[in-house]
Write a structure and sequence with these properties.
mainly alpha; globular; single chain
Length: 198
């Protein structure tokens, strides 16, 4: 990944264009990961939490309303977009959201799964062509990162999404997020079908 060299306070970013796939694309991609994760029937809260964990990092966008600077550790794509945050969320959900299970994934497997689902959010953000990079190593480092390849159009937030620009973003996400998610889903189904015939 490429670090984004920034000096705190040196860059103004219009919060209408925050540099992320739209929130429902995060949920769609994470749900595809869920279908590949286990062959066991999972309770509805598994799917609700899958979508919620994938969207949770963008809770930091509320900081715009309170004057939190984009490049702050608590700003958008800062601490909540870090590996450490994903691990904490994965631990909390995996350990406490499902109680004792006699079948299906154990607690350690659930911790790993929900950590990866949460981490999928900043990794997708690092594929966008706008906004600022993601602080993957926060709180140890405020460095922001992007992948070298950044094909996903930056998404406007709020009602700005329902515009011509929002339509361009949606087309980009269908190509670079939804189709890969569909491929993951179909590959998982094919693998299970082949495995069941053996």
């Amino acid at each position: 990944m490429n670090p984004v060299a920034t000096t705190p306070g040196s860059v103004f970013v219009d919060p209408r264009f925050e540099g992320m796939p739209s929130i429902f694309s995060h949920a769609i991609f994470a749900s595809a990961l869920g279908t590949a994760y286990t062959t066991e029937p999972m309770p509805s809260r598994f799917w609700v939490l899958t979508a919620a964990c994938a969207m949770l990092p963008d809770a930091d966008a509320i900081g715009f309303a309170f004057g939190v600077r984009y490049d702050s550790m608590l700003g958008h794509r800062g601490l909540t977009h870090s590996i450490a945050f994903a691990l904490l969320v994965g631990l909390a959900v995996g350990m406490f959201a499902f109680g004792k299970r006699s079948t299906g994934p154990g607690k350690l497997q659930l911790v790993i799964y929900f950590t990866l689902v949460t981490l999928s959010h900043p990794l997708l953000d690092a594929l966008t062509n706008g906004g600022r990079g993601v602080a993957l190593l926060a709180p140890l480092s405020a460095e922001r990162y992007f992948f070298p390849f950044r094909p996903i159009e930056v998404s406007p937030i709020g009602m700005q999404f329902f515009s011509e620009r929002g339509l361009e973003v949606l087309v980009s996400e269908v190509i670079w997020v939804w189709l890969p998610a569909l491929l993951i889903y179909m590959t998982a189904r094919l693998y299970r079908a082949v495995k069941s015939e053996k």
